[in-house]
Amino acid sequence: MAQALSVEDLLDAYRTMKTIREFEDRVHVEFAKGGIPGFVHLYAGEEASATGVGMHLRDDDRLASNHRGHGHCIAKGVEVKGMMAEIYGKRTGTCRGKGGSMHIADLDTGMMGANGIVGGGPPLVCGAALAAKRKGKGGLAVAFCGDGASNQGTVFEAMNLATVWKLPVVFVFENNGYAEATDSRFSVSCKDIAQRAIGFGMPGRIVDGHDFFAVHEAFAEAAERARSGGGPSLIEHKLDRFFGHFEGDNQKYRPAGEVARLREETCCIKRFAKKVTGEHGITAQQLAAIDDEVAKLIDEAVAFAETSPEPEASDLLTDVYIKY
Amino acid sequence: MAQALSVEDLLDAYRTMKTIREFEDRVHVEFAKGGIPGFVHLYAGEEASATGVGMHLRDDDRLASNHRGHGHCIAKGVEVKGMMAEIYGKRTGTCRGKGGSMHIADLDTGMMGANGIVGGGPPLVCGAALAAKRKGKGGLAVAFCGDGASNQGTVFEAMNLATVWKLPVVFVFENNGYAEATDSRFSVSCKDIAQRAIGFGMPGRIVDGHDFFAVHEAFAEAAERARSGGGPSLIEHKLDRFFGHFEGDNQKYRPAGEVARLREETCCIKRFAKKVTGEHGITAQQLAAIDDEVAKLIDEAVAFAETSPEPEASDLLTDVYIKY
Amino acid sequence: MARKITYQQAINEAIDQEMARDENIVLMGEDVVGGSGSDGEMDAWGGVLGVTKGLYGKYGDRIMDTPISESGFVGAAVGAAASGLRPICELMFIDFMGVCFDQIFNQAAKFRYMFGGKAETPVVIRTMYGAGFRAAAQHSQCLYPLFTHIPGLKVVLPSSPYDVKGLLIQAIRDNDPVIFCEHKVLYTMEGDVPEESYTIPFGEANIVREGDDVTIVAFGRMVQQALKAATALAKEGISCEVIDPRTTSPLDEDSILESVENTGRLVVVDEASPRCGMAADISALVARKGFSSLKAPIEVVTPPHTPVPFAGKLEDLYVPNPDKIAAAVRATAGYNA
Amino acid sequence: MARKITYQQAINEAIDQEMARDENIVLMGEDVVGGSGSDGEMDAWGGVLGVTKGLYGKYGDRIMDTPISESGFVGAAVGAAASGLRPICELMFIDFMGVCFDQIFNQAAKFRYMFGGKAETPVVIRTMYGAGFRAAAQHSQCLYPLFTHIPGLKVVLPSSPYDVKGLLIQAIRDNDPVIFCEHKVLYTMEGDVPEESYTIPFGEANIVREGDDVTIVAFGRMVQQALKAATALAKEGISCEVIDPRTTSPLDEDSILESVENTGRLVVVDEASPRCGMAADISALVARKGFSSLKAPIEVVTPPHTPVPFAGKLEDLYVPNPDKIAAAVRATAGYNA
Ligand SMILES: Cc1ncc(C[n+]2csc(CCOP(=O)(O)OP(=O)(O)O)c2C)c(N)n1
Ligand SMILES: Cc1ncc(C[n+]2csc(CCOP(=O)(O)OP(=O)(O)O)c2C)c(N)n1
Ligand SMILES: [Mg+2]
Ligand SMILES: [Mg+2]
Q1: By Cβ atoms counted within 10 A, which residue in A173, B265, D4, D116 is the most buried?
Q2: What kind of architecture, by CATH, is found in domain B7-61+113-306?
């Protein structure tokens, strides 16, 4: 199933991963400075997951995310300036400042929303997939969930429904080892989340979520199955998060030094860079150029967010109903 | 694991199965006559399931049932007269006429309640099992669910929790092929419900639910595991219901003649009788004597129900809170 | 051309006419086909009480049975609505909301607001409510006050065959999420219903009877009970105006306030539980905005603060009836400050 | 002996003292230990905001982390309560009720009634509510009116460190299911709290300030806002009586009615959504039973009928504040029929 990835594809993949990383690193810094309100969950460390999946998605495909949604948004093509402004609660934000980090959505790019409710997304993608199926143009829908979410009843129900209705859905479980402070070895009652696939009549795979290429290849197979009417799939990405559960987390449930070690050993971007410069004839200069580009983009996004106006008082009352 | 069943045990088993059958057949008749109000779901055909399980249960074990609960109640030792009166809505009923068929409960005998909500029981038994575990006397809790219920999120969550907390629970799925009018081959996304066990880290078995001995033996193993601290198990009973989903069901979703054929071919009571008279030296007379006893018991129960008083008007306002 | 059909037939007809008109409409729910996967008749049931019977024959795979996974399929309906379809989703009994409420109140209801006005979620959730079937505590509740509490939902309580058809067509065409509450006792009610398609706008109350002495606001099945009480009271010389708001959200405040301005006396009749319910909601509205016209305490007629009992005798005592309504009207009519 | 501690510490202390007293009490919820299964500190968190921190060290396996399976573990708490334990179950945010509501309102709340008075279900569901954290639409709701609507539940809204301790101990000892609602903004509020154990009975309002001109009934965090408004108004010569009902179910009707009898004017302040909410509920009570004392329309101060917005500026506009309360009081105080 492996599709040949062109140099351009690979540079795109790098750009996306790097954009996510820079975005998150910067939000981390700005949050600490006090510029960003609310609950913020960062995706750093998991970039290969969203990126390897996102590269397969067409504009009319749909994606439902969770509380840790920035990476999924970027990989689905949501504009970074609007996202940053949204996180700052500004009127220029993707959701005009009314949603915030946990609720970024952009239906035009197929992004159905981050979600503050663990397990909120999987039922929704079943509906998006039903719409795609009825349209008959080979569209699909993907739901991203964590290991913690894998225990939520809504998620099981969605998997069952997807098979019963033979929907073009892919359920991607990003198993980063923790749900808040709780270890997935405690909360998930089987060894691998992928084992649950059999109980829902779909294929299940375990993938190294730090490896862009592995993610990309596994999703290709699931996407092909979905688009051709073969029904849903489950993929478990084993990966790590580099920050706390949310900004402010003491992370004491992690053994000392775990994060530093992971950043060294499992970083998907380092690994990607090493591989593409080694095997695909991409130069360090090409990557550095992208790094600069991305740094500039994020700077601009922060500047845009900081200087953007707050919502108007009257915004409080709009958008409850179509006419209100 | 098979425990030796004494003649007395076998006669008890027969008595229980027969009591359930007679109870249900009679409710069917009285419902048609108009004596019984509300929604009534009959258990006839499935007697070996409740009975084979119930024989393993101690008084301090707990059982959570579903809408099709009469058989589970009887097998757990709930008094038949009170049950019948409850179904009639009389003040002498198990729940003083306030619950009805879908809500018969008798905590003193460990019966935690029939349940009008599909999937309502499994979370509850996790709590009962937690209480048993803390007490440390080897108690267990069992939940009965249908094939339809096996798709309810609450049920999956309960299974996950039971393993995570290592609770003494047995989840029994009574797969009678239908959830209302929907075939389980449509609604259950995997071949056998038992396959779901692996996703929840527990053993899963498929058992011929028409065969009292198979049920009894499989539950012995699960009970032993639970009582000794080994955690939960899942058992799927494949069986058939002899009446419609509820009284009044046209049953057109079943092929013509299905019920008649099943009553002939799969009747667990006939099968039991044949076996015990053939292999265990029990006589047809012994069984006939029990038949008479049961017929009398049910007659008395109906007479009791019919002649019992309705609730008092003041009962409307009591029992909402402990003081109210 | 109007002819007499039942409330239940009017629902079926509304869905049928709308599905013929707009192929983006799909219908899903437990046994709405009623026989999927079976070897017998595929559409044996057409809903647990036969309300959607016959639609599968006409619309095939646009009518979909579901597993018993309310969060799954209600959420799918919501997601489909946000993706271009116009789903009608049946939650068999409103009592089952507890296993899928999140998808309704945190997802469907909030998309538009959370997403800065950029989402539309045209989903209709049809559901059966109310006492009277001896169906006991978990199959007899009203619960629509819970939905009415939630910003972003519209809540409809049709009280007659005519209304149920027009309101359901309106709900299907509406682009916000709608909770459409059908009283199980009304299914067999007959009434004049035009064959052709028509809509009844949300937020416009129906003055079902005009009168000058006391305003009665009643919801759903209680509208008929209020009318019976009004008829009886007319013989005693008490003239009641009976108002059926038809939708609790949006609410036609003006019609209620205008009526109370004229009568100065209000009785609210509702089958839902009393605390934080519709009776309280309407009372509060009038106590605030209609205070100057009020000549007497606002009376309410609701069930007691108890679950719904099983035994027929108790259930009959539980549900408000014309006698209790009449008693409340007499009390308020006879009050002199 | 009283000393100053926070609302959050008072909660911890109440649980601690009760668990020491009664070994049937267990505590469960997501991350209430906060590190189960991990290689780091097992009790790293002690709740998402650290409210239950330290209890694991004292009570070991009586404090239990759970998977993210609210129906599963809330149901387990309910089942355990019906089986002899006295569980305290944490639903992290009240906004998550939608994934487990059935176990609360159809199971816990109804057992006693459905089972003819033969069940007791002593479960406490502790949950965090309210706006003010920039936590947006799905983490800032109040929603306690939904629980108040349900017969069989008791609903508690402690507004101070003193109250939260006494009410929580009462809740734990109560034999009915209790929904115990903690406002997230109050966690850091300090106040005098006795070290020793004490209870505050349910259904007894606290008259937090006496006054003669206008009665203000306020709930939860709004009690403090109402007091601020009252202080400001006193300078204008308007004397407010501020009543904190402390529990919405049962409700101390008498205290409210007596106060209104004296003042003749009522303002209800609540942070929950307005439709079918507490403000409506209290208004209806007084419009019925206190009508003859009323001299002015009943004013309410609530958020608008919208979801909770994210942006700080909008959230601040959303939540009732002392200025808005004062304006409402002035309006009612200045009203002359
Ligand atoms: C229904 C619900 N329960 C609990 C929470 C609180 N919560 C938010 S994120 C989270 C952990 C999620 O863990 P996981 O699914 O593994 O995702 P991760 O944060 O690791 O990406 C929890 C418990 C919630 N938002 N919604
Ligand atoms: C949450 C919920 N959804 C739907 C129903 C309606 N309902 C009652 S019984 C039933 C079918 C149950 O099928 P199954 O679990 O297979 O049990 P069986 O009736 O076959 O014994 C349904 C859909 C319900 N009571 N509760
Ligand atoms: Mg995780
Ligand atoms: Mg079945």
Answers
A1: A173
A2: 3-Layer(aba) Sandwich (3.40)
